[in-house]
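Morning F.,

Quick status update on the modeling queue. The single chain you submitted on Monday has been processed. Sequence for confirmation:
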Amino acid sequence: MPDLCVIPGDGIGLEVVPAALQILEAVIPDLNTVTAEAGWECFQKHGVSVPPETLETIRNCGAALFGAVSSPAKKVEGYRSAILLLRQSLNLYANIRPVRSLPGISPRADIDMIIVRENTEGMYAGLEIMQDGRATATRVITRTASIRIAEMAISILKSQERKKITIVHKANILPLTDGLFRDSVREVIDRSTREGAQITTDEILVDLAAFKMLSAPQQYDMIVTTNLFGDILSDAAAFWCGGMGLAPSLNLGNELALAEPVHGSAPDIAGKGIANPIATILSAALLARFAWQRKSSAMKIEQAVRSALIDLTENGTQAIPPDMTTRMIVNAVLAHL
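Structure tokens below.
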């Protein structure tokens, strides 16, 4: 029986998480859930964005589904981003962002890539100082983190029966940090190849990678890259699956997993019952696939979403109608399970 820590968070997270949970429970009826708190509203109530009890619950469950988090408009003393704190506290060192064409939504039908992003260091290490009018952020790249993200990428590549890894870096300008990342990843790939893995490898500078993400996205199979570059590229790639509002993601460690839709808390529509839950539903499918090793359950959810979108977009001939509610989308997905 899989256990799941459910964290709605802020704004529309309170709507899309229960929607995704309904889909998940329809496919995995023996799922055991426990609800916990995290986010900006949690900080306002308790003085912390992620209480110790939430971290402990996730550790006990092994998996979590997180909704969305609001952010204060300016720096608030003592506040740390809930999702960054969760990633670093739980050592969720890999961020997995699949981007697939969706019926009736995607601008083209031939996109199927996975972006694997190092999730704990880089520019997001949180090492910033201000002194005498000069702000400095320290970028941290380690061989240990670079090797383990490469190993995770290869593990996913094999499980998904993919063949090509593209290493994205900027080693021409950052020869020490990005050079270490690139060389460490190549070391792992070379070792896997010697052990019999069939992997095609190339590398590309991040600026050219961004250009090709717009001009020739179909060439990508799997991208592995550093934290900031991966954040930017995966958000840009989301255009091909219908936008960031439809993009799923999974934060993955060796023993723990936390799924989250990429979109924010959308306070302008929160409470209106019109939030699109598809990103959260697809994020839940990633939990089934990678956290619980239930590939068939993940495939059922993903196919039900695709079939529902065909219905909702009149066989792909129009966009999702603007008057579509959260409940209507959930019902359309349920009808195909």
